[in-house]
Specification:
This protein has 16 helices and 14 strands. The chain has helices spanning 2-26, 30-40, 72-78, 93-97, 99-108, 128-133, 146-151, 154-160, 174-189, 192-216, 244-250, 270-276, 306-313, 326-330, 346-357, 367-378; strands spanning 45-48, 54-57, 64-66, 87-91, 117-118, 138-142, 165-168, 222-226, 237-239, 254-255, 265-267, 280-285, 333-337, 388-390. The protein has a 5-stranded parallel sheet with strand order 5-4-3-6-7. Strand 1 (45-48) and strand 2 form a beta hairpin. The protein is globular and about 65 Å long.
Amino acid sequence: MMLFQRRRALVVLVALCLMAALGGLFFMTGPAKADASAVLAEGRTTVTDLAGRKVQVRLPVQRVILGEGRQLYLVAALDTDNPLKRIAGWRKDLIQSDPDTYRAYLRKFPGIADLPTFGGFEDGTFDIEQAIALKPDVIVMNIEAQRATEDARYIEKLAALDIPVVYVDFRHAPMENTEPTMRLFGKLFGKEQRAEAFIAFHNEQVKRVTDVIEARQPARPRVFIERIGGYTEDCCLSFGNENFGRFVEIAGGNNVAKQAIRGTFGQLNPEQVIAADPEQVVVTSANWEAFVPNGSWVGVGPGANLKQAAHKLAAYPNRPAYAGITANRKHAFHAIWHQFYNSPYQFVAIQQLAKWFHPELFADLDPDATFRELHERFLPIPYQPGYFVSLHEKEGQS
């Protein structure tokens, strides 16, 4: 009888302790209660992605599927010792769209060749069964994949299997969304301080241009950006008010396509380009041998042969869209690495554009040195120059 009473007393004591603990939660109000609820929901934390969605994720994540391989640009800045250690699988776009960077990582981390690869949500080649089999803690998707994932009900299917999806953005509104995207990655990886250091460096390098432009208010040259030069023969793909179009404005230029292109990406016809009479033409290009073998693309990028790149760029002024424009008479044609449009490295492109548009104001600014410092401070691979070339410069130099 006494043993029974002792057991009952113990049960009552445990119950009272539990009630006290739960009571503390019940009487929480405001953000404290919300935060506690988020953390206590199966040990998860609520994060807000770039689509504004509240997503519960177990942090820090250990297994990640990258919905775009070029997200490695940021992952490597956080997990610099071994960028592969959390990647359970990734989209194969880096291998094809930026083969020179891929090879640089392959030399340092041979295991990258063994990562499972995926197609994209947008083109319907994503293998959801394969993704499920890899048991990721989270799938990180670019925001432009949102419509395709929702139409196919992938979010619900993955959520039913306890696999959250978060959206990020470096492409559609990079100057607005790079910082929150980096912070989101930092939170997911438990590398908040590292992410903040990267953000501080990013913003500091942008200010080296914007402070001068604001103080000196130089005349803005008319600039046309030819997007993905050599990837297609279509004319004349360009940018509106975002991405490289915005970079041009920040760097002290006047993007002539911004009135005709209302979104991030669009197209002008040759007559529109001629009528705008750009004073400078900047071609975004890269090594696209995987897509257009022996094409007219200008192969700028890490370790590029700039003499060969300048030779290919020299054919661009002969295009009908550039007949008689001021840039043609001045020989003011430039090529820049296209992948600046989809990475957290936009500040390097902004610095180089500023040097082209206002060489006197930015004579002491060295974008190559900036990019080298980024590599030395944040990335595990050595810097290889080759990201920019101009016709009015000596061949083989950038």
